[in-house]
Amino acid sequence: MLFIVKEYFRNYPARRKVAEILVNNGISIRNSKPYLGDIEISVNAIAKAAGVNRKIVYHTIEYIEKTYELRSIFERLRPTSNLDQIAPVMGWEVLEITFKKGKFGCSLEKIAKILKEKACEIRQIIGEREIGDSNKLIIIVENPLKMDTIAEIKNIEHVESILIHTAEKDKEKIVCNYCKVKYCPRKVALPQ
Predict the structure, then answer these.
(1) What angle in degrees, to the nearest 10, is found between the helix axes of 54-66 and 43-50?
(2) What is the rounded average pLDDT of the residues 152-170?
(3) Alpha-helix residue ranges (DSSP H) falling in 93-192
């Protein structure tokens, strides 16, 4: 998606910043107005978020509206609910898995199979394939995962790193050097 934005806005860096804000936040353009879902939002707010003046936002909207390919994409954008920030508050665990560049698809299938075999209740899965950057997968599960499950996921060929967010309040509990962990109640070291 961002590749299309980069191509169409190649010669307009300020407009590209606006378009990226729209895409990343699910802000659609309909009837020459920006909408977050069904709520019309101000051009000022978009300009402030993109670090540009309102005129650039208006020019970006006009360009989107007059370019069929862009209009057909931007009028269909919708925001999505992302539970990763509230998951620890709800007592859920978040796995943030980073993959080596370009190695997302096969690894996703293997992770899903592992979680199914371990009977993990998945709340949400969010995947991001970025151009030129690492690919990221965020999985929110209802209960803390066992260390052997995390080890199996870590051993998948193209997994680069795993960051775990738990509901644990005590930040003093450090696990191991096996994975990056914000907080972990387990205090278990895994062999590498």
Answers:
(1) 110
(2) 81
(3) 105-117, 147-154
Name the 3-class secondary structure at 162. Answer: strand
Task: Give the pLDDT confidence score for residue 66 in this predicted structure.
Answer: 96
Compute the distance between CA of residue 21 and CA of residue 38 in angstroms, rounded to an integer: 17
Q: Largest Cα–Cα distance of the chain, in whole Å? A: 58
| pLDDT(161) > 80 | yes
What's the 3-state SS for 74-112? HCCCCCCCCCCCCHHHHCCEEEEEEECCCCCHHHHHHHH
Domain ranges (residues) in the chain: 2-74, 87-181
Check if the beta carbon of residue 181 is closer than 8 Å to that of residue 114: no
What pTM was estimated for this model as a whole? 0.68
Instruction: Give the range among 19-33, 66-80, 118-132 with minimum mean pLDDT.
Output: 118-132
Structure tokens at 156: 């998948």
Question: What whole-number distance in Å separates Cα of residue 29 and Cα of residue 26?
Answer: 10
Q: Just give the CATH number of 87-181.
A: 3.30.70.260
